[in-house]
Design goal:
The complex is a heterodimer. Chain A is α/β, with parallel strands linked by helices. Chain A is built from 14 helices and 18 strands. The model of chain A has no long low-confidence stretch (mean pLDDT 93). By secondary structure, chain B is an all-alpha fold. Chain B has a single domain, classed as Ammonium transporter fold (Orthogonal Bundle). In chain B, 59% of the residues lie in helices and 0% in strands. Chain B is built from 14 helices and no strands. In chain B, helix 3 crosses helix 5, helix 10 packs antiparallel against helix 11 and helix 13 packs antiparallel against helix 14. Chain B is globular, with a radius of gyration of 20 Å. The chains are: A alpha/beta, B mainly alpha. Chains A and B meet through strand 16, strand 17, helix 10, helix 13 and helix 14 of A and helix 1 of B.
């Protein structure tokens, strides 16, 4: 097995011990689910059901004609009780379909979609609402539709799971290794590629063993990735495995790659073989403020608070609840927000664990420059962004920033590095659009 | 529930930790200086650190905890002769903290290394106080009175007094005349290894600095045999290379920039020592390269991930 890595990056404490040995457990059906019509990167869906209507599990409830989008499905059978803006884990309120469960969980009868041609499979993947389960929730069918002039040579499967605390991908690799291999065969067919590489961080030796066994006899290479954050970033993964750099502002397609997360591969397999839309996912519920951390299979739309309580949430001592991992995750102000397609974990931290980022003057220590996985000079961008010079921030490459959080993690002046990056991007885009 | 931007964890390495880390790294040399030059060193250290801290409190009260003022005071004292009048020390500390550091905006904004700025100001204003007051080691406790030219000054004087040159061994352990904190290569090295292990400094500046001085003097120093070893061990090279030139605020950011900075420091130091009017050039070399730091930074930017190399474009 090859062992590879990328330049720069950091080694935060992994904190995976509490959940890595916990098998995936089915979370009991919730009483109600809140399904945001936008859970993905791309155009939001429009609801195609009405208030008071009865829906069945797996029924399509929101769609749009846009290509870069991903439909949503009912994750329960029951009555639509409201279609209204509800708090969303990515902030603000998003139009959502609320379904009250009838506790029967009656599935819609699966359509007998014709299998076979890559285009048919792609349609199936699109209509099943598959989006990247690693966190960004980019619609999977879009990634599987490279323009005709781009030749795809490699399918790279992302099993890095470099975020501390999270173990959902790890458990999927252990418990569904055969399903991953089946999913890979489907994706190979769709993309027409021969070469498949599965990258797994070396801190998951059991996954490497399980997957090595599962791929026996198949033409799938398993590569050991040195444990370093952010190894699971698409660009870092491709660089480590193939030595190729995705060009600035480019896509993996530009270097002949398509990258899919292991969880997404299983979802693709379920969609194609079992005709099952994406209505549930594996979520790691962890952190010091839950007494029994777990890996749960959860219906999309289940409120965070129910998951937390299921894991014995210590509400009074909790200081911060985060969707995702501690490096890139999003802190939540309202625990009624639902699990969405990109919810890989819920991290509840105790008050004493919550650190105060006390923004101070940069001392030019160069730690951010030495750690930035896209070789930016984050301190300069943060200074430009701080003084609202978004033109300078753009010139310095802020749009190459992957918002991995490394610069903030290492900054001894605890500057709001990642925040300033996001701010510069938002304002620079806003200024450009308002000028044109 | 607290709401904040990611990341939600931190490495734990803060400005305070780094500054106090450097102070700890300087402790062996501090204790050594008291051993070599006697109790008067304590008075110089006290005045230098005391005045620096008071000024920091007066100008930017909130910042005293970061330890940078204490470090400036300590480093300034390290760069003064043991016999320097205490009022000169106080003026130097004032110049270092109030002018070189705070007038430019405080920690992170200063262009020049504050301690070196203070020292060079004193050199310009009271050269006689700054170039006398050398104590031969153990002078206070022993018989020899104030005297003892520094090894580099002896070398500068020429062959007539060459027999006064100390052995390399003496230079390494620090049993020679010189500024308070600069004499013991061994004790400074202990602190430097601590800083390198803690990753508070990188190897680029000190190694390129010392390496350049070694290479330059290996070729150009003809007055004594194996003069390059003497040049590495004598004067303030180790103090400067590991503790002053590595100052984050006033040195370049990228590894390449740091190497250029170190090489520049080495060349200027060697040129001053060999051909200049002063016996020692470490402080001037670092200050001159401090001034060049923005320029070096501008020309040693990193290639952004995915940027095509120019030849392919």
């Amino acid at each position: 097995m090859r062992r590879v890595s990328f330049k720069h990056g950091i080694h935060p404490p992994e904190k995976k011990e509490t959940t890595r040995s916990k098998p995936i457990e089915d979370f009991p059906l919730p009483k109600k689910v809140i399904i945001p019509l936008s859970q993905h990167t791309g155009r939001p869906n429009e609801s195609i059901v009405k208030k008071g209507e009865r829906v069945e599990t797996g029924q399509l409830i929101g769609e749009t004609s846009a290509f870069i989008s991903s439909p949503v499905h009912a994750s329960l059978s029951g009555i639509v009780s409201a279609i209204e803006p509800r708090p969303h884990p990515l902030g603000m309120k998003v139009q959502s379909v609320v379904i009250e469960s009838d506790e029967k969980d009656e599935w819609i009868s699966a359509s007998d979609a014709v299998q076979g041609s890559p285009d048919n499979i792609k349609d199936l993947i699109k209509s099943a609402g598959i989006a990247g389960l690693g966190g960004a929730a980019f619609p999977t069918h879009v990634k599987l539709s490279p323009p005709a002039n781009k030749k795809i040579e490699f399918l790279i499967i992302n099993g890095a799971e470099c975020e501390p605390y999270l173990t959902s991908d790890e458990r999927v690799m252990l418990e569904y290794s055969a399903a991953i291999v089946e999913g890979i065969e489907i994706l190979k067919k769709v993309l027409g590629v021969e070469k498949v590489v599965l990258g797994i961080e070396l801190n998951k030796p059991e996954c490497i063993a399980a997957m090595s066994k599962a791929v026996q006899g198949k033409d799938i290479e398993i590569v050991g990735l040195k444990t370093k954050y952010p190894q699971g970033g698409e660009k870092q993964l491709i660089k480590a495995i193939l030595g190729r750099e995705v060009p600035r502002r480019g896509l993996p397609l530009d270097v002949g790659c398509v990258v899919q997360n292991v969880g997404t591969v299983v979802a693709v397999r379920d969609a194609v073989i079992k005709k099952k839309p994406l209505i549930e996912r594996v979520v790691t519920v962890t952190g010091s403020a839950v007494e029994e951390p777990k890996n749960l299979r959860v219906r999309i739309g289940t409120p965070f608070i129910e998951l937390l309580n299921f894991c014995n949430f210590q509400k009074d001592s909790a200081g911060k609840v985060i969707m995702g991992g501690p490096m890139m995750g999003i802190s939540q102000h309202n625990l009624d927000v639902p699990v969405i397609k990109g919810t890989s974990g819920i991290l509840a931290m105790k008050k004493e664990e919550v650190i105060e980022y006390n923004h101070r003057q940069c001392i030019r220590c160069a730690r951010c420059v030495e750690s930035c996985p896209v070789y930016l000079m984050p301190y300069e961008i943060s200074l430009a962004s701080e003084s609202d010079r978004f033109d300078i921030a753009e010139k310095l490459g802020v749009f190459d920033c992957i918002e991995c959080g490394v610069c903030g993690y290492v900054c001894p002046a605890t500057r709001h590095m990642t925040h300033l990056m996001k701010k510069a991007k938002t304002y620079a885009n806003f200024l450009k659009s308002s000028r044109s | 529930m607290q709401i904040s931007s990611s990341p939600h964890v931190h490495s734990g390495v803060t400005v305070e930790k780094i500054m106090w880390g450097v102070v700890i790294a300087l402790l062996p040399a501090t204790i050594g200086s008291v051993y070599f030059f006697g109790a008067r060193v304590i008075a110089v250290l006290g005045v230098s650190i005391g005045v620096s801290a008071l000024l920091e409190l007066a100008i930017k009260k909130g910042n005293i905890r970061d330890g940078s003022a204490l470090l400036t005071g300590l480093l300034l004292a390290f760069n003064l002769p043991p016999g320097v009048p205490l009022w000169v020390v106080a003026v130097g500390a004032f110049f270092a903290v109030a002018i070189v550091k705070q007038a430019f905006g405080g920690l992170g904004c200063n262009i020049f290394n504050p301690a070196l700025g203070g020292r060079v100001f004193l050199m310009a204003a009271w050269p006689s106080h700054m170039t006398s007051g050398w104590h031969a080691p153990h002078a206070v406790r022993g018989v020899a009175a104030v005297s003892g030219a520094t090894p580099l000054a002896i070398l500068k004087e020429g062959s007539a007094v060459m027999e006064g040159l100390p052995e390399w061994r003496e230079l390494f352990f620090g049993n020679v005349s010189g500024c308070i904190g600069e004499t013991s290569v061994l004790l400074l090295l202990i602190g430097a290894i601590f800083l390198l292990c803690k990753r508070y400094i990188t190897w680029h500046v000190p190694f390129s600095f010392i390496g350049t001085v070694a290479a330059f003097t290996l070729i150009a120093e003809k007055s004594i045999p194996n003069g390059f070893i003497f040049h590495i061990l004598a004067g303030g090279l180790f103090l400067g290379a590991f503790f002053m030139a590595t100052d984050y605020v006033t040195s370049p950011i990228t590894p390449k920039g740091k190497l250029i900075f170190g090489i520049g420091c080495g060349i200027i130091t060697s040129v001053i020592r060999l051909y200049g009017g002063y016996p020692e050039g470490v402080s001037y070399s670092i200050l001159l390269m401090n001034a060049a730091t923005p320029l070096i930074d501008r020309h040693t930017r990193l290639r952004v991930f995915g940027e095509r190399k120019k030849s392919n474009a």
